[in-house]
Amino acid sequence: MASKKLGLKKTEDTDEIKKTTMAQRRWRLLARALTHSSEQLNPAEEEISVRRFTSFGLVNPTLLENAPVDPESSWYEYSCVIENELFIAQVRRINKTFTANELIGFNNTGNVCVWPSEECLAYYLLNNQNICRDKIVLELGGGMSCLAGVFVAKYCGPAGVTLTDGNVTSVDNVRCIVARNNMEDFVKCGVVQWARAAALLRQSANGNRVQVHPYIHP
Ligand SMILES: C[S@@+](CC[C@H](N)C(=O)[O-])C[C@H]1O[C@@H](n2cnc3c(N)ncnc32)[C@H](O)[C@@H]1O
After folding, report:
1. Backbone phi, then psi, for 191, in 5-degree steps?
2. What are phi and psi of 38, to 5 degrees?
3. The pTM is what?
4. Which numbered atom of ligand 1 lies nearest the CA of 145?
5. Pairwise CA distance, residues 188 & 145, whole Å
6. How many angstroms separate the alpha carbon of residue 171 from the centre of ligand 1?
7. Residue 143 CA, closest ligand 1 atom number
8. 187, 178 Cβ separation under 8 angstroms
């Protein structure tokens, strides 16, 4: 692309070319996901992928051999040792390949993996159990595992726990996890989309009485 045509100075021109190249590489990555290509990423493509590493190794998954089998998911035992104490929870991970329609629907990043930030939060709260003790705990955007909220419910003595995400598939998966860890009586799960919840809160601030709680998606 000629800088003359765009009326760009030399440095702007170089930046423009860099951006175009980056955009092209991102589109190629997306195309590969949509066509379900199993080709390995090359180093340049790895670099533009937002997910640069998978774990800090604080909470570690082991595949559960004797868990329910279905082609779209697998069960893992997530474990963490802090000062010689072992913490474990069984977690269902979604393995399915998403269709183009699902990918352009509501944010699907929480169904891709358990992100390292969720792992850190789980570890931090297990290591600082007083933060949640006797408190009402609400996890927002917890993805397909709500790993931190699950560990809090199991080990940190909260007064109540509600696990949420805006993605219906994630929340359905979290319900399975809560059931398998025998916490159905104590832990609520629901779809909460932040813009919608914020609008309800604004209405309630305007004097209307509105209850904001996770709604159960059909
Ligand atoms: C990068 S994922 C992280 C998931 C999980 N916390 C983890 O670390 O494994 C971001 C999550 O935020 C949720 N999310 C994004 N925008 C949202 C919104 N506007 N309302 C509710 N949830 C949202 C997505 O559905 C997704 O599960």
Report:
1. -85, 120
2. -100, 5
3. 0.81
4. 9
5. 14
6. 11
7. 27
8. yes
